[in-house]
Amino acid sequence: MSQSNIPVNEIYCSLVDKADKKFSKIKNLPYYERNRYDTYFCKVFKVYTQLWKFQQENRQKLVEAGLKRWEIGEIASRIAQLYFGQYMRTGEASYLLESFIFYEAVLFREYFKEGLFQDVNLANKQLRFLARFITVCLVLNRREMVHQLVNQLTVLLDECKRTFQETDFKEWKLVVQEIVRFLKADSAYINIRPLRYSIVLDLHPDLLPQVAAYDGKKNLRLRDAILSTFHLNEVKYSELTLDAFRMLQCLEWEPSGSFYQASGIPLSSTSTTIGQNGGGPGPSRINYSQDITDPTLPPNPRKAVLYHPSATHLLAVLATISEELSPDGVILIYLSASGTDGQAMPSLSSANISENMIRNFRSHSISTSNPSSSHSDGDHKICLYMGTRRNGGLNCIYPCDLIPFTRRPLLIIIDSDGSKAFKAIKGAEKGEPAAILLSPCSSPPIHHASGSLFTMFLTSPLQAFYLLLGFSGSDSEMGLCHKAEKLLSASLNDWGLTLAASDNLDPLWARLLSDPFIRRLLLRLCVLL
Description:
The protein is α/β, with parallel strands linked by helices and about 525 residues long. Helices cover about 45% and strands about 10% of the residues. It has helices at about 10-25, 35-55, 60-65, 70-90, 95-110, 120-140, 145-165, 170-185, 240-250, 290, 310-325, 355-360, 400, 455-460, 460-470, 480-500, 505-510, 515-525; strands spanning about 220-230, 235, 240, 300-305, 330-335, 365, 385, 395, 410-415, 435-440, 445-450, 450. Strand 11 (about 445-450) and strand 12 (about 450) form a beta hairpin. The protein is globular. The chain starts with 7 loop residues before the first helix and ends with a helix.
């Protein structure tokens, strides 16, 4: 029988079944081993593209055959999930944009509204959709939309608890509490500038001061990053902790000019049926593709965000990424977790910042702890607890665990009260010298309700100063904040020129300073030296 003779609803059901099977295989795949799964992603997305196009072209016949609006929303929501997953695997901002567009279409076309309070399963679909869309909007920095979605989620949850009294919505109550706490912690200081690298505020990569290459080796580029944190009662939303979120943002390019658009831009009422990458709904396509992409900029580094990984899982991810790393690449490893009590945090003031900065950059291990503190023999027993301590060594990361991976270039950032133990990596490398940035071994604790202070200095130093001084958004005038931002930016640029011109620069830092993301992290660390 030719396909033209097969009823439309049978073809549709066949495509749905095929798409469901492929989606179930890919939805839980890890965000590493990108090269392995790229081909499979294309196959899954091809099926969903066919399904979406088919239901568009045959919408009336399918509706007459019993197609429900929530089924259309389910397809669009899954396409959005695919796009977001691919963004997390590749770091490509265009995938993040497409995920936003599909989710936004589901929201404004109210695909799940019909019969919402007659079917608890449909109510749960709407709750899951809102929760996932919030994550996308957080990463895309659409805060106006985030607050709108949180309000909708809260209202919907309250209504569901009244309507479906026999159903326990305890988990959804925790989801709402998480996002409210996350937004409160992340909004505790004035966000004068984006966390992402903005060519409006930061030097364009082509304008960075040149550093002479040493020993004929090529300069390195940040290609991959592993971001993982674990702290008791840490601020998080879903599996994205506040500190990992800030580092994730800090290692991406800011969409050109979008941060400076007026907040609360009215969404267009027009719609299109063609997505940027092959078909999809989008009621507000107003210049988003222009905002999110800039062909003159390099691609974003790929990032693996690991939520409370076991030691073996983290090392397996690191091994896989090391195997895939390009010859000119460097892997950034950011670990924020509790270790052991250390020395008191040194004063942030310094009589001669430039002198201290140059002294630290003569070595490829930079610690913000007291220089006079010695490296004791017991430090090799110190580890980072990436999970609860009751699991013993399963969740412990020791300095020696990372040494085998120094056959490839590494930039290791340790944010912990036991950070000094990772000085042991220096001199024990297996091929490439590892660049190591260590937080202060501080007292009182370096982690608090607004996240890690050390991480905040790396991602948003001016806001970290505000937090230290006890300022809140209502305490500061925007004019003074902008003056402080200009002064800090000028100081960091001056320090960058000083480093580039230094004759005593360690060869490893010379190879790393040409990367804009790494350079910015290093200069911000100078504030603490």
